[in-house]
Model the fold of this input.
Amino acid sequence: MELWYTEEQTGGLRFSCQVKQALATVRTPYQHLAVLDTETFGPMLVLDGMVMTTMADEFIYHEMIAHPALFTHPSPERVAVIGGGDGGAIREVLKHPQVKKAVLAEIDPEVIHYSRRFLPEIAGALDDPRVEIHIGDGFAFLQSCKGEFDVVLVDSTEPVGAAAALFSREFYETVFSALKADGLVVAQSESPFFNKEILAGVYRDLGALFPWVGTYLASIPTYPGGLWSFTLAAKGSPPLDRQRLPQAGFTTKYYTPELHRSAFVLPGFVQELLDQ
Done:
C-alpha cells in the first residue's frame, strides 16, 4: 500500500509526496510535529501540517536566509536566529569566520530534539561552542538584547499560532532595538505569488522603521509555488554597495556572489506588489 503526505498549501492547492515511513509524530505543547521519510525529498520536517524543511532542498532556504546578510555586513560577530530550531540557518551562519557568537532562540525544544535525531546533517552545527541555545519566545528574548546583534535572522514558520507575533510591527521594532547601529535583519516573507499580503506587510512594516529595505527571491521546490521571498532591512547605508566575497574554502550549493546581487532583481509582478 502506498502512503502519501499531503499539505494543503492554499484553499485550492495541495502538495503531495510519497512517504516511505513516519519517523516521528508527536504533539508538543506548541504544535504537531512530524518527521517523514519521503521518496523524493528524503527526511521531511512537518509542523502543523506544513513542510518546514527537507533533506533534499533545505540548503536553498538556509543558505539564502543567511548569506545575503552575512556577506553584506562588514564584520558579523554576533548573530541571532529567531525560530529555526532545525539548525540549518545556524549551520550557514557558522561558515563565516567572523562570527563569534550565534544565538538560536527557539520556542519549541522538541523541534531541536527531533532535528538532532533525524536531521543531523542540518542540526549538527548546534553543538558548535559558538552557539548559544535559548529555549523560549524569540520576541521576549530580543526585548532584553538592546544593541547586541550585528545580524538577526527571522527564521519563522508561517504566521499562525505562536509565530504570528513575528510578523508584527511591534516585533520589528524590537528587532530594530536589538541591532547595532549598522545591523541587518532578514525575515522569510513567504510566497510572492500565494502570500502577497504577507510579503507586502513585511516590506511595509520594515520600511517604516529601517532606512533601507529590499526583497530577494529563491527557488525552493517544496514551498508553495516553488518561489520564495526574503526581505532584508538595514539600519545603516544601502547594503548592496558593500558586499564581501567568500574566503577560500567557503562552500555552498545555491548561494554565489553573483546570485547575491541578482536575487534582488525582482520579476515585474513582485516589484509592482512592493511599489503599491
Q: What stands out?
A: The two ends are 50 Å apart (CA to CA). The domain at 3-54 is CATH 2.30.140.10 (Spermidine Synthase; Chain: A, domain 2).
